[in-house]
Amino acid sequence: MYKRLMLVINPNAGKGGYKNNLGEALRVLDAGGYRTTLYFTSGPGEATELVKHFAMGYDVVACMGGDGTLSETISGLVTIPSPPTLAYFPMGTTNDVARTLNLPVNDNVSAAMRLVNGRVHDFDIGQFGHNKYFAYIAAFGAFTDIPYVTPQDQKKWLGHLAYVLQGAQNLNKIEPVHAVVEYDEGVIEADLLYGSMSNSTSVAGILKLPEELVYLSDGMSELVLVKNPPKISALTQMLESVINKRFDNENLLVLHTKKAKFKFDHPVGWTRDGEEGGAYEEIELSNLPCAIRFIF
Question: N or C terminus of the chain with fewer C-beta within 10 Å?
């Protein structure tokens, strides 16, 4: 008996890579017992609305696109009681979730085979404020605006290099923000260059957290805080720690928490899964344990 599969496609992701072997991928899905209906998005936020309106008629909802498309799909699924299982055909520029889950990128046929033969896993997601969500990270501070300020044509043709170039242009714009962060184990007050709450080993394709620190269904998120070091030499040491995957630097904190509340002296801009998330003077983030069932 066939299972019903809703496949949401972002045609702009991955240089239009959805066209690559799409027919063969659909044949693999059909042979594996899935009858697939395609839904194409035409702009930001549409994946969420499509999922909200149509997902309950399907056994599995898959999305084909980058981290943003996945985030929108999940944001739709979490509004549905007992949502369908999720699957992912990764494309796009950074692919943090694909890196974390070791999923094939820009390979529709391999992704279809993973969907057919994969196992279902529980997956935590994040809640941002009262009614917004993130698949793997919400962040503020240094370089977090790079994904959405980088021109689309540069992302299309240069890929991840576009982010690196844009980041280099912004080095002289890094300014610390004073923050009070309340989390499960206490309170931290500091001038921060960066802060995030995540459920991923890969952050922007640059910061790589050790796999032994990150569990995707433990009900805990990773709280990363980067303090403003007193000297340039301390900043250099901290960057070396990140590059060498050492997290014992006094200015770099990697903590585990179910919730975190951030308070600032003025509204601070955030990103959610690489997309602009708005500016807030106070915001609470929380882990939603095992909110999604994910095939991979």
Answer: N
How many of the other CB atoms lie within 10 Å of CB of 174?
Answer: 13
Nearest to 73, CA basis, from 273, 220, 222, 271 = 273
Structure tokens at 292: 């999604």
Contact 286, 127 (CB under 8 A): yes
Domain boundaries, the chain: 3-118, 134-289
CATH number of the domain at 134-289, please? 2.60.200.40
| Nearest-5° Cα angle at 254, 252 to 259 | 130
Instruction: Give pLDDT tens digits for 123-136.
Output: 999 999 999 999 99
* Structural Rg of the chain based on CA atoms: 19
Which residue in 83, 89, 52 sits closest to 67, CA to CA? 89
pLDDT in tens, 107-127: 999 999 999 999 999 999 999
Residue of 71, 55, 54 lying closest to 13 (CA atoms): 71
Architecture, CATH, for domain 3-118: 3-Layer(aba) Sandwich (3.40)
The helix (run of H) or strand (run of E) holding residue 110 is: helix 108-117
* Structure-token pair, residue 204: 């922007």
Residue 294 has pLDDT above 80, yes or no: yes
